[in-house]
Amino acid sequence: MKTSSKSRIKELINFDKSHGNIVIGTDEAGRGPVAGPVVASAVYFPEFNDEVAQAVEFIDDSKKFSSNPALRKELSEQVKKVAKYSICQCSVDEIEKYNILQASLLAMKRACNELFSGPEVKKNGAVILVDGKFVISGYKIPQKAVKKGDSLSASIAAASILAKVYRDELMAKLSEEFPVYDWVNNKGYGTSAHIQAIKTYGYCKWHRKSFLSKIFAEQKTLF
Description:
Layout: H1 6-17, E1 22-29, E2 38-44, H2 50-55, H3 69-82, E3 84-90, H4 92-98, H5 100-116, E4 126-131, E5 143-146, H6 154-177, H7 183-186, H8 192-201, H9 213-218
Parallel strand pairs: 1-4, 4-5
Antiparallel strand pairs: 1-2, 2-3
Helix pairs in contact: 3-6, 4-5
């Protein structure tokens, strides 16, 4: 598997440093699945020293580690040692109420607020780098939307890793209660086996029903 070179990591760090002294990256995991909450993380590196550079040496967009979840888990633990971070989520009910985009942004807002609640991270002078095309609406702290931010920003890439690892572990835990859906492997995504399980056994409280409307239309007698 290809990993980030030192020059690549330097680019990610320099991107953050160009935005100020207090740079917080935030990203989410779980917009696409048909089951489970959406999880967001916010990450702040107090300083970009050699220890941080070493800890994030191989960090770059969590999706690129799909074939090596053990490495992604290791990176998550390394980030936690050198960064201030928070992890929050929006429930399935909130996803259904607000839609997945707004729920994702709300989870990011919660993660940022939780980070600011600690004594080390001050709101004054902070800039939030939000992965994607949208900023958090109604948030007074300066923000910048960064398309494909997890491949441009060290703090966003770190947040991406933390959110993904946390959500994967959460779905594995939920799978113990509902093993027929095989969430430990599909993480709530609508794989063919997952969809077939829904058709066979019906949905449960962790399913996003609005994401499954076509299946419901086909299975009216079942549901």
